[in-house]
């Protein structure tokens, strides 16, 4: 069934939504700020960790959907540097869940020839978590077709400051030229070599970036939805992608379709 801009998507099935997607203009890189696990749990009178658990089910379904759609790079914000301010018990449970997730998904990363690529201040993670994160990253490092990037103990500002410090070291050591351009600077970020996100999704109704990928989202399309992360599933991915495909990514140029006579 064709969709018209005035129609709401509510009455459409997942198959309808899928058939509306233009396979040629899907994003290459989607980033997600998975937010709202705690609120999902408290709405049900459950402890916050129940929201994180349900959130993991959503992560699997969402990653699966991107895989089936052929979107090659997906980035998830799993734990921010600021999240260390949470109670110790919640942090410990989040780390346990992360380990469970990695143990369960390890095989899938291999089967799908997907590189698991962690970014962030990984040395701040508990030793057992670090070991597993590094192990899965190492054993999948040779896959080039697909990447799942996971931001752990990540902060966008500290990433930029770290990059700057390493650049200074290289300049002082004579390994980099004294004048730096954007292309060179990018090589010092943890995302070096990967394209910037085309689309950034944040769930739970918060319209902020929370220190995520500050450099990389300079021209990313932002999509905010009220859906809480544990409820964000295949259908929600399709809705976000359809919304993205309606946008005119001008990058500062004139809108598409403006005829040359009308330009001045
Ligand atoms: C997102 O859900 C998960 C992490 C930040 C680890 P929250 O735990 O932030 O859930 P809310 O925002 O309190 O509902
Ligand atoms: C952002 O969510 C971080 C992650 C999703 C990992 P938060 O819930 O921590 O962000 P704030 O506190 O609302 O900015
Ligand atoms: Mg939150």
Explain the overall architecture.
The longest helix is centred in the middle third of the chain and has 24 residues, at 88-111. The chain has a six-stranded parallel β-sheet, with helices on both faces. It contains eight helices and six strands, in the order H-E-H-H-E-H-E-H-E-H-H-E-E-H. It has a domain at 26-155 and 198-245: 3-Layer(aba) Sandwich (Undecaprenyl pyrophosphate synthetase). It has 264 residues and is an alpha/beta fold. The mean pLDDT is 95. 41% of the residues lie in helices and 14% in strands. Helix 3 (48-69) packs parallel to helix 4. One 3-methylbut-3-enyl trihydrogen diphosphate (IPE) binds next to helix 2.
Search tags:
264 residues; alpha/beta; Undecaprenyl pyrophosphate synthetase; six-stranded parallel β-sheet; 8 helices; 41% helix; globular
Brief overview:
The protein is an alpha/beta fold and 264 residues long. It has helices at 14-20, 37-43, 48-69, 88-111, 127-140, 156-172, 182-186, 234-245, and strands at residues 29-33, 73-80, 114-119, 146-154, 199-202, 221-224.
Largest sheet: 6 strands, parallel
Shape: globular
The CATH superfamily of the domain at 26-155 and 198-245 turns out to be Decaprenyl diphosphate synthase-like
The average pLDDT score comes to 95
Strand content: 5-15%
Query: What are the low-pLDDT stretches, counting only 5+ consecutive residues below 50?
Result: none
Our Rg estimate from Cα atoms comes to 20 Å
SSE sequence, one letter per element: HEHHEHEHEHHEEH
The helix count comes to: 8
Which cofactors or ions or other ligands sit in this model?
3-methylbut-3-enyl trihydrogen diphosphate, magnesium ion
CATH architecture of the domain at 26-155 and 198-245: 3-Layer(aba) Sandwich
CATH class of the domain at 26-155 and 198-245: Alpha Beta
Q: For the largest sheet, list the strands in their spatial order.
A: 3-4-2-1-5-6
């Amino acid at each position: 069934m064709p969709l018209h801009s005035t129609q709401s998507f509510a009455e459409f099935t997942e198959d309808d939504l899928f058939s509306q997607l233009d396979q040629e203009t899907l994003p290459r890189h989607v980033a997600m700020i998975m937010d709202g696990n705690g609120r999902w749990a408290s709405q049900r009178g459950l402890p916050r960790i129940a929201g994180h658990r349900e959130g993991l089910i959503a992560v699997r379904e969402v990653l699966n959907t991107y895989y089936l759609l052929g979107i090659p790079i997906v980035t998830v914000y799993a734990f921010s540097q600021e999240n260390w301010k949470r109670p110790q018990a919640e942090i410990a449970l989040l780390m346990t869940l992360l380990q469970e997730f990695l143990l369960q998904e390890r095989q899938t990363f291999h089967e799908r020839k997907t590189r698991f690529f962690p970014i962030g201040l990984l040395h701040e993670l508990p030793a057992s978590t670090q070991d597993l994160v590094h192990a899965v990253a190492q054993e999948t490092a040779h896959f080039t077709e697909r990447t799942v990037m996971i931001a752990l103990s990540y902060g966008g500002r500290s990433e930029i400051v770290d990059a700057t410090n390493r650049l200074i070291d290289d300049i002082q050591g004579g390994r980099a030229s004294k004048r730096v351009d954007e292309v060179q600077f990018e090589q010092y970020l943890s995302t070096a070599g990967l394209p910037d996100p085309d689309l950034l999704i944040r769930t739970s109704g918060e319209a902020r970036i929370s220190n995520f990928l500050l450099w990389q989202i300079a021209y990313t399309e932002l999509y905010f939805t009220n859906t809480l992360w544990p409820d964000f599933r295949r259908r929600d991915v399709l809705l976000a992608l359809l919304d993205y495909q309606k946008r005119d990514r001008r990058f500062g140029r004139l809108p598409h379709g403006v005829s040359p006579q009308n330009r001045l």
